Amino acid sequence: MEIGDTVEFSSQWCRNTGQLTGDIPFMQGPIVDLQPMSGEKKVATIDFNWLNAHGPDAHIKPPQRMKALTSNLHLVKKGSGPPPAPPAPPSKVSKLKTLATSEGYEGTLEFLEEFAMDCIVPGICMNEGCDYTGSNEPDCGQGWCEMCHTNTVRSGLLLAGII
Ligand SMILES: [Zn+2]
Questions:
Q1: pLDDT tens for residues 21-75?
Q2: Number of domains in the chain
């Protein structure tokens, strides 16, 4: 069992402890924490919800956080594991390439040779999915993007690390 898996108390455990009635056998929820114990045993922290519970107030109870040995739990649904890492923001190199190409240059080198000494150089918006380009001062790190309405346009020279 891993964090994110949905579990319930095993029917075996319910029988052994006499909990055949009441809400306990109907509780399910995701594991939010796992702590190792001795041997193979682990203590799981579960946010049990009561959606499957019976009774008049079963559906209005808030989730209840409980700890239980994993050996007393039964896996209901495999979770997706730990949440995936957010996608990396576009790199300076890829943005610089996009900028050079959109300005009509073969590659970043040609672009840099052309603008290294200029006082106004093209820049590109650093937001993902936006390739707005506009001209800025060479040291501009916060040019205005007309598309995103944010100060996210970086000059090509800044991207290249020349300044
Ligand atoms: Zn933008």
A1: 666 666 788 999 999 887 778 999 998 886 655 555 555 667 789 899 988 898 9
A2: 2
In a domain, 114, yes or no: yes
For residue 86, how far is its CA from the centre of ligand 1 (angstroms)? 19
Q: Take residue 43 and report the two structure tokens written for it.
A: 């203590």
- Would the pTM of this model clear 0.85, i.e. be above it? no
- 116 alpha carbon – ligand 1 mean position (Å): 23
| Distance in Å, CA 134 to ligand 1 centroid | 10
Crossing angle (nearest 10°) for helices 92-102 and 108-115: 70
Amino acid at 143: G
**Of 20, 42, 77, which closes a domain?**
77
CA of 154 to the centre of ligand 1 (A): 10
Q: What is the Cα–Cα distance from 9 to 73, expressed in whole angstroms?
A: 4
Each residue of 72-114: pLDDT tens digit? 898 988 887 666 677 777 889 899 999 999 999 999 999 999 9
| Residue ranges in the chain assigned as alpha helix (H) | 11-17, 92-102, 108-115, 156-160
